[in-house]
Design brief:
Blueprint: H1 8-25, E1 29-34, H2 37-40, H3 42-57, E2 61-66, H4 69-78, E3 85-86, E4 89-90, H5 94-118, E5 123-127, E6 134-138, E7 147-152, H6 155-162, E8 166-170, E9 172-174, E10 180-182, H7 185-195, E11 200-205, E12 223-225, H8 226-235, H9 242-254, E13 259-264, H10 270-276, E14 283-286
Parallel strand pairs: 1-2, 1-11, 2-8, 5-8, 11-13, 12-14
Antiparallel strand pairs: 3-4, 6-7, 9-10, 13-14
Helix pairs in contact: 4-5, 7-9
């Protein structure tokens, strides 16, 4: 965030400008949904971990909710199993849900915990199965063990936050019969953020935010209300893969989140730009004004 050619005076000025935002977010809860392209680059991964730890050090209660689609695909490929998707959701048979649980709750989760610790953070990894954090039911028989969230129990997360940890949450869920489900990461993050009454949900994706012209990053819409977001869907400006992301934003706000930001996770230190600067990053979806 601070260029190596900055003078000490310039560095001090940058920190001073961040002070109002540090005051605003101190003691507040921010949920970060992390996955996709920002997760596949080692350099970007380290920068995201640095951002999370810095926010934690200044008193922000950060909850990191992660996916891991590329890692799941990689393991499936090694096992000779081809991924299949319907409407963007992974078809998850019994063998695949075992792989999902192993990769998300195991390798990916513990790697992120280790990286946060290496940057000076205090992190604890949990899954949606721990403390019955995420309860789910089968979304559609054609999709197999893909879960529709029916209940969120946040005690495990709040206990960790109270003890000063950064909770790192993998998005698998369970039911009363002991079945395990693969849950969409954006949906899980929205419901968790809502249950926590989070100040902000940050959704890291691979585009700048909501664009008037999907092929032109300069047409970024910096702020929309829930009603305006619904109207953009009707107009076709929000289309394709952005529809479920915007729906997750609306869902999060409906469940109690103050506002949600969709941002390009490929931009270095985009989290800090969003939280600690005037300009912010991406598109903020907020409550209706009336």
């Amino acid at each position: 965030m601070i260029d190596k050619h900055f003078s000490n005076m310039q560095r001090a000025e940058v920190l001073t400008q961040a002070l109002p935002y540090i005051k605003r977010y101190n003691g507040k809860t921010v949920v970060v949904k992390y996955g996709g392209n920002a997760m596949t680059s080692d350099a970007l991964k380290m920068q995201v971990m640095e951002d999370v730890v810095l926010l934690w050090l200044i008193g922000v209660k950060v909850v990191l909710v992660h996916g891991g689609g590329p890692e799941i695909n990689s393991i499936m490929d090694k096992l000779g199993k081809k991924p299949t998707f319907i409407d963007g959701l992974r078809v998850t048979d019994k063998e695949t849900v075992d792989i999902v649980q192993m990769v998300l709750a195991g390798k990916v989760n513990k790697t992120l915990v280790s990286l946060l610790e290496s940057k000076g953070g205090k992190a604890m990894g949990i899954s949606g199965l721990d403390g019955a954090l995420l309860k789910a039911e089968m979304k559609n028989e054609k999709l197999g063990y893909v879960g529709n969230i029916t209940e969120v129990n946040i005690e495990a997360i709040t206990d960790l936050l109270e003890k000063g940890y950064i909770p790192v949450v993998s998005t698998v869920a369970g039911d009363s019969e002991g079945n395990v489900y693969n849950v969409n990461g954006d949906t899980a993050a929205a419901r968790i953020a809502g249950a926590l009454n989070a100040e902000r949900l940050i959704m890291m994706t691979d585009i700048a935010g909501i664009l008037k012209d999907k092929d032109d990053p300069s047409t970024l819409i910096p702020h929309v209300t829930v009603k305006e977001a619904e109207e953009l869907k009707k107009q076709g400006i929000v289309s394709g893969g952005m529809i479920p992301k915007v729906d997750c934003c609306i869902d999060a706000i409906t469940h109690g989140v103050e506002n949600v930001v969709i941002m390009d996770g490929r931009v270095p230190h985009s989290i800090l730009m969003e939280i600690l600067t005037d300009e912010g990053a991406g598109t903020m979806v907020g409550k209706d004004n009336d």
